Amino acid sequence: MTVPAAVPAPDAAEPLLSVRDLRKHFAIRGGILSRVIDKVHAVDGVSFDIAPGETLGLVGESGCGKSTTGRCILRLIEPSSGEVWFQGTDVTKMGPEKLQSLRRDMQIIFQDPYASLNPRLTIGAIIGEALTIHKLAPSRQAHEDRVVQLLETVGLRPDHMLRFPHEFSGGQRQRIGIARALAVEPKLLICDEPVSALDVSIQAQVINLLEDLQEQFGLTYLFIAHDLSVVEHISTRIAVMYLGRVVEIAPAAELYDTPIHPYSEALLSAVPIPDPTVKRKRIMLEGDVPNPIRPPSGCHFHTRCPIARPDCSQRAPVLEEKRPGHWAACHYRD
Amino acid sequence: MVRAVDGVDLHIDSGETLGVVGESGCGKTVTARSVLKLIDMPPGRFEAGQILWKGRDLIPLQASEMNSIRAKEIAIIFQEPMTSLNPVYTVGDQIAEVIALHQKLSRKQALVAAAEMLRLVNIPNPQRRVHDYPHQFSGGMRQRVMIAMALSCQPKLLIADEPTTALDVTIQAQILELMQEMKDRFGMAIMLITHAMGVVAETCQRVTVMYAGLVVEEAPVEALFGNPRHPYTQGLIRSIPRVDRSAAKKQRLEAIAGTVPNMLEPPPGCRFAARCKFAMDICNQGIPPLKEVGAGHFVRCVL
Q: In sequence order, which residues have a C-beta less than 8 Å from that of residue A145 and are 6 or more positions away?
């Protein structure tokens, strides 16, 4: 078995986060005794670094393992193997107490702003909960002041504190989710499809807010999304995933201009451009994403790849630095 | 009472693709379903208006007359192909049912015709796949099945309600290409309802933009993207990040402030006024009329 090469973050002696050969296998149970009959390799050896202050975009289609990767980093899902280094400590080996203090530094915002807020708590209680858990407010007054400050930071009004989630629109709820994550002053924010459920005009509001907050607080983002135009807009670098593996990592502009992996190329060419005067050549991929329970042998993409050769089904390509700072996993593209 | 659609005028010429765009709750889906009278009544009702199909008003028609128009003349496909297919029948049976009903064929002949439709929409092994159930198909394949069913009686108009929203981008590209192919083959018109401006730009000839139950702009696709006149349309186009513009990167997106109005109590004037950066006093004094500003280009704005 080949261990994928480490992919260092550019121009940084010390990455904030390093993920090494991360794997997550979900067991599939069946039969009357619920025995493990198979496994889904949701994340199948993922490695990358994130430098302080940058935004790493993680893109791919449904079921490619991008959300599972995000959750394994926070250990909201226990990884099967691999290492997640955050500020010099391996997160995967932390005990429960250390893990709780880690969550002060790493927070997550979710896709569905309707399902991720407790409907029975007021906005004030939702945002303030973490302040209580991490003992960040010495007095009741300090607690309330901080909640008000957080609401204003994300563009909501202080009097919203006493309201309940159902009184807010999707975009406002996403702001509440962001305020909750910011309460503990994290260093890394994992954004799991934060704008996918929002209308386009609201999407732009939330994207702008995330950019402002990054500048204001020096935040580092892992931005997980399936919408390539959003990811390209917000990211410093982008990692493309296909069936549990990273197939390409490159600076955002470079990935768009000169993608190396045939999958990234096809994915980018499939994005509709909102301009009727632009005519592009589209690379049509045949068929669907294969079943992740039985991914194709060798390179997972060979069944749909326009340039596949016979040995692609035998050997899995390793992520290599094909150009400075531009990594790709393909035998036949340089 | 919510007036989900509040005086919408639109027309589709034979053989053209009309895009109907707008955000959640703007009334685009209700408009589409009203055309085929698929709205539950009650609670829904038509307060006023006409739906003219080849010059004939569909609103007063009896259920049986409507049935002879559905599928045969006007067909519809929905966003979620899993919930619009019946899980306990094979896809072949479901397509054959439509064909048998409208073309007076035997079950056996209809099943052969169903397999032929599956072949047309590029489903591999159609002879075998007609006997499969919806859960045995992937999302993209299910949408192909829906298209096969909708086109089985060769309608003159296909209403596609967010047909690719639930699909991944590479599968979306496949489905849009298939729809274009089918349109050329059968010479039908398409009414494409979507919130994705990119999809509109690539597939439509004409576009109608809806906001809060009203049409705010209608134009040929080049004019709409090249010279959008309504502040809402302008905002919509400028708020989308563009993957093809590397140089424009790190440019801030132009978000539209605020949120859509509550449709239980819509504002008296222009429904976009509260979010519009050009709003004036006059904007709150009544809904502006749709006026022509160019060839086939209409805008509901006082500016």
A: none
Give the ipTM of the model, two decimals please.
0.83
Measured in residues, chain B has a length of 303
Please indicate whether, in this complex, the C-beta atoms of A274 and B242 are within 8 angstroms of each other: yes
| Identity of the amino acid at B124 | P
**Strand ordering across the sheet containing A81-86:** A35-50, A17-30, A81-86, A89-90
pLDDT digits (tens, 9 = 90+) for B256-303: 888 888 888 888 889 999 899 898 888 988 899 999 999 999 999 988
C-alpha distances out from residue B159 to A79, B44, B74, B185, Å:
45, 20, 7, 17
CA dist A202 → A81, A194, B23, B57 (Å): 38, 11, 10, 38
| Strands in chain A per DSSP E | 17-30, 35-50, 55-59, 81-86, 89-90, 106-109, 188-192, 220-225, 237-242, 245-251, 320-323, 326-328
Residue A296 CA to residue A303 CA, distance in Å, equals: 7
Out of A201, A208, A276, closest to residue B225 by CB: A276
Chain B residues within an 8 Å CB radius of A274: 197-198, 200-201, 225, 237, 240, 242
Q: Which of A200, A233, A256 sits opposite B195 (nearest CB)?
A: A200
What gap in Å lies between CA B216 and CA B261, rounded to an integer? 15
> On the CB side of B91, how many CA atoms lie within 13 Å of its CA?
32
The answer to whether residue B252 neighbours chain A at the CB level (below 8 Å) is yes
Rounded to two decimals, the pTM is 0.88
